[in-house]
Design a protein that fits this description.
single chain, globular, Aminopeptidase, alpha/beta
């Protein structure tokens, strides 16, 4: 694996939980599958990172550009006519975008998104399991899958997965270190952006220019990947966009700030669907997303992050999902098979919600 010379991470730990052979999260592995094994899907390079790496998307189902209006999303709202942006209700297929690997150390989402690609291509997920019900629903959608949005950051992470490893190690590698080796930690790592200057190990959070895609400059993006993702939201106008992340706790659907209350309510309904599937599978989960976080009185105010920006670019329902890493000292232990199941159960809930609205 290529690791930038100025960001070494030495003294790696050994987990007592073996990584399954099917678990695929390295950039070279993912790109090789997309480049050599995808035949049903349409492969595109959305952007090239500051490190010179391609960001691939794989899409299934035909787009419907004839339904595009003459305005961008916010101008259409200014005209009090959302159809001036996109006549969503006329679509023959709802559009689902799944965005994985925004933070390089959160490779659980890369595995889950690539597994959806493999399911669409072969009828089996990464572990070799057939999921006929999920496959049948996904085939009724326009599906856009992005397994690794931040390959620069992923290349800097020397682990294949976090199951059985301590949170402290994930934080060291994920958020990076200062020149003296002390960890930046979360959320303090966000107090320096782009992450330049006092950097000993540049964490997987960032691209090679030190940009955290979740907190770019929205009027003038610093990262070409950010610009491409906002362009994708404008082009596709997805009915649902899953922005996938990971943390040390239970699988959780988060609130999206600075969106209308109706969008918050729809996100809560998605969480209810997903949590119902988690309950049926015996998987613990987090709480329902709270509404109204953009309202006056919140102190400090929430960030207008990538998920918020994607709504204002044209994604009807953008949702941030936090998957468990499976850390040894996490709130609840999760293994690789459970993590993959969480990813596919979330995809199932997303497809069900989109199809139920037809």
């Amino acid at each position: 694996m290529t690791i930038k010379e100025h960001t070494p991470f030495a003294d790696l730990l050994q987990s007592n939980v073996p990584v399954p052979e099917w678990w695929t999260t390295r950039v070279g592995q993912v790109n090789a599958y997309i480049e050599n094994e995808v035949s049903r899907g349409e492969v595109k390079v959305l952007a090239t990172t500051p490190g010179g790496r391609p960001v691939y998307s794989v899409s299934y189902g035909q787009p419907e550009p004839a339904l595009r209006g003459a305005a961008n999303f916010n101008s259409a709202l200014g005209a009090r006519d959302p159809r001036a942006f996109l006549r969503r209700e006329e679509r023959s297929r709802p559009v689902l975008v799944v965005l994985g690997g925004v933070h390089g150390q959160e490779m659980e989402n890369t595995a889950g998104t690539l597994s959806a690609v493999k399911l669409m291509e072969t009828g089996r997920d990464l572990s070799g399991r057939e999921r006929p019900e999920l496959l049948a629903m996904l085939e009724r959608l326009r599906l856009v899958l992005i397994p690794v949005a931040n390959p620069d950051g992923r290349e800097r992470v020397p682990y294949d997965g976090w199951v059985g490893l301590p949170t402290k190690e994930m934080t060291r590698i994920g958020q990076g270190t200062r020149s003296d080796g002390s960890p930046y930690g979360w959320p303090g790592c966000k107090a320096v952006h782009p992450m330049t200057g006092d950097v000993g190990g540049l964490g997987g959070y960032y691209d090679d220019a030190g940009v955290n895609l979740m907190h770019d400059e929205w009027p003038a993006p610093m990262s070409p990947v950010t610009a491409a993702l906002l362009g994708l939201a404008r082009e596709e106008g997805p009915d649902l966009l899953l922005n996938l992340h990971s943390h040390s706790a239970r699988p959780t659907v988060l609130s999206t700030a600075y969106v209308p209350r109706a969008v918050e309510d729809e996100a809560a309904r998605l969480a209810e669907r997903a949590y119902g599937h988690f309950d049926a599978a015996g998987l613990e989960h987090g709480a329902l997303p709270a509404a109204g976080l953009e309202h006056p009185g919140t102190e400090p105010p929430p960030a207008f992050n990538l998920t918020s920006a994607l709504y204002h670019a044209g994604a009807a329902l953008p949702v941030t999902f936090e998957c468990p890493h499976g850390l040894a000292d996490g709130v609840v232990p999760f293994g690789y098979e459970e993590i993959l199941s969480i990813q596919h159960l979330l995809q199932r809930a997303a497809a069900e919600q989109l199809l139920a609205a037809r």
